[in-house]
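Example with several molecule types.
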Amino acid sequence: LRSALEELPVEFREAIVLREMEGLSYKEIADIAGVPVGTVMSRLARGRKRLQIYLTKTVENYL
Amino acid sequence: MTCKETKNLLNAYVDGELDSAGSLAVENHVQACASCLAEVENLHALASEIENGALRFKAPPRLKTNVQAAIRTANPRASGSFFQWRWASVLASAVLIVALTWAATARWTKSSEETRLVNDIVSSHVRSMMANHITDVSSSDSHTVKPWFGGKLDYSPPAEDLTEQGYRLIGGRLDYVENRPVAALVYQRSQHFINLFVWPSDRTTIKQQDQLTLQGYNLIHWTKSGMTYWLISELNPAELNECARLLRE
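Resulting structure tokens for the full complex:
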């Protein structure tokens, strides 16, 4: 999971870390990143999607 | 709500960022759509994976000391105690400002009340001589003047005759000062009239004599035995003082 996070583009990683680990709201993330809330929402969605895909692949490889 | 619309909102839904109407719409759809439900479960699984993934690590304590040491070297003035002292002084100034404002307001209110009272007394004195109505009861006998106030006031003012000392009691009058009816005792010295206003004081302490001059009138004020006294006349201060001294005895 850590390597999956590290592989993410920095803006996706930023959004996910602030949301999942720091528990910030979309508005707070938007203020920190200096982007609209809508962008935060799409970055989170795409970042999570990539993480899921990466994790699924890893599990498949492992099996 | 269509599946596509819902999918766009699933992240916000899982993060609790939708308003209640949106949240309810997504929830209704998810209950009925296996694909969306699976995605919600995936998101929850990912969140708990991140939460349990031990992704956090604690910075070693050395880092903190190193950073602080670097700051101190770069800027010796920015030490912790300096900031603490600065905040303490800011706080102290704020407290001082509040205290001074409060004191000034209290003082100003008090002094404006006193000014109003003094103006009241001067006006009453002037009116009493203007309207040819200086006494309601005319007598130099304190046994006539004192009982006259009975039933008109809820206290009994002193009515000493000081004829022998040169201040003749000529009568009493009901007056109105500081929003209450008060006793006015009238004395005469040669051609000068002296009004003595008396009413119960809310101060229990004995107040030393105050003396002031307003619009050419001399005023003397004191409190004694729970009564407040205001003596006013155009008589010169020395003789009025003498009168006050006699009345206080």
